[in-house]
Amino acid sequence: QKEVEQNSGPLSVPEGAIASLNCTYSDRGSQSFFWYRQYSGKSPELIMFIYSNGDKEDGRFTAQLNKASQYVSLLIRDSQPSDSATYLCAVKRTGFQKLVFGTGTRLLVSP
Amino acid sequence: DAGVIQSPRHEVTEMGQEVTLRCKPISGHDYLFWYRQTMMRGLELLIYFNNNVPIDDSGMPEDRFSAKMPNASFSTLKIQPSEPRDSAVYFCASRRGPGEAGELFFGEGSRLTVL
Q1: Which residues in chain A are closer than 8 Å to B55, comparing Cβ atoms?
Q2: Mean pLDDT value across residues B43-56
Q3: Of A17, A72, A102, B71, which sits most exposed with the smallest number of CB within 10 A?
Q4: B1 has pLDDT over 90
């Protein structure tokens, strides 16, 4: 079982819709959770991080965490074609410095 | 401030050759990470340093891979001898401090092709 699992996609949504990206993790010691966006041919860049169960909102982005279910999600409201990218979920254990990444979900937003 | 700087951006070499990838972290960042990205395996951590000291190299695939950080502003990842299965994008990333919110800043990556 992979430490961090994501559906590779592509996830296709029309412009203006809500895109929902999901991630599950296997290590119950994971305490910090991150969403990175990676455009084709570019490097990953941080969108959001979350530590506590529940929702965290930042503009059009909402991260959701359910530690009991070992599940993290990212919602993108009012999706734009510029949101088309691969979204990487990453987890980190408290006291450990390395981030473990999933293989990413490719999102396509059509005009 | 300049971001993380990696070189070369692209490298094409033949099997058996030595490859050296270079990284300059963001000034003031005390953590440096080397990741490898492939379609099949995604982003994998190879090794990371704290204050120039290697802390965890458990992700280094085998003895053909080695990494050094002789000072706070420079790190190298060396593959000798290289093999076709080493073809990937190699990212260097740096971060300030061990804090839980510490964001990783990635370089643009070095795309390696081993023929």
Answers
A1: 97
A2: 95
A3: B71
A4: no
